[in-house]
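Listing S7. Sequence submitted for prediction.
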Amino acid sequence: MSASAHLEHAAELVAQACRIVALTGAGFSRPSGIPDFRSPDGLWAKSDPSEVASLRSFRRNPDHFYAWLNGLLDPILTAQPNPAHLALAELEAAGKLNAIVTQNIDGLHQQAGSRRVFELHGHLRSATCPDCDRQVPTKPLLPNIRSGRAPRCNCGGTFKPDVVLFDEILPPGIFWLAHQAIEQCDLLIVAGTALEVAPVCDLPLFATRRGTKVIIVNFEPTYLDPMASVILRADVASAIPALARAALYEAVGS
């Protein structure tokens, strides 16, 4: 089957569905200039995640953690939604997309206009002191971070960004809502994720076990490929908008 035939089939599935959920990963924001993690030139090709992005390493050496994070700040804080983010927001506005479940911490789905977004790995909008639970906006902490100093709380603790590090559990409430959304959807779009990080990688199984159709948009194979209805090996920034345009045109014309 040709690439255009795959796209046409995927568009038909989107046009027929009423409760779509999109599960997105780091590859979804790569066209916005934010590096992903697991590609050959991704972040984990340069750094050991257990040494720079784990709760254990944060507690042991928060300055080292913030030195690593500082290199990501500008790409994340200056990034703009790419066409894939905008296309999902368009599908939501049209009543086709019910929710976005994302592993990304960049907030680009919300910037694009999406409203129901479950951020499984947290976000950079705020930080919390683990010693006293004081939560503050991240913006006032940026001067400290950019100067290479871990931001300190008045109690003497170190503020930690409200992102989920290795060794941490996902926010139970957010994970439950994401699980419910995926379990109840009638089409799941998995885009820009290799599905290698637990427990997020298991979420699509709650859809496939019910016979829900799955569209995968990802350059590399995933464990879910044998269970997918359609696989698009394409850049999300071109495939998702094309899918949305085709699906919305078909829905209007039907």
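Caption to Listing S7: primary sequence and predicted structure tokens for the chain studied. The beta strands are 20-24, 97-102, 117-119, 122-128, 135-137, 160-163, 187-191, 213-217, 230-232. The chain has two domains: 1-34+81-121+169-254, 37-78+123-163.
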